[in-house]
Amino acid sequence: MAFRGVLRNVARRLQVRTYAADAPKGDEMALTFAAGNKVFYDKQVVKQVDVPSLSGAFGILPKHVPTLAVLRPGVVTVIENDGKTNKIFVSSGTVTVNDDSSVQVLAEEAHPLENLDRGAAQESLSKAQSELNSAANDKAKAEAAIAVEVAEEILKAASG
Where is the ATP synthase F1 complex delta/epsilon subunit N-terminal domain (predicted)? Predict the structure, then answer.
């Protein structure tokens, strides 16, 4: 019993969490952001990354708590060291924040917002909704529902 208490105390001391607000000045965060169609960042040092995840959108700064999350369709915003903001739509994927402040965003598909076509997004949404309404089985319904969600998010992103 005493051994367990000592072990718990040691474990608590080892589980010190630090947050971005506690990050010492000068810390850097290296971002790797890639999709099947393009590599957007390759270990480039950036100030901040905002990601849409299934558990909610969140921002990442240097010294963020190590995290693994699933991306939902939406916009990843990267604030570069010079202050430039880069917005990229992702369909799905994962984001990993490591102890060393490195971040990996791996997207199934990703496109800069300026490349999104609002008209094509509206067409895709209409087609996906039609497929959802006429789906004959659960698999077809699930695939169509995913297509509707992605098309809705593309339309939102393309609209501003």
Answer: 31-110
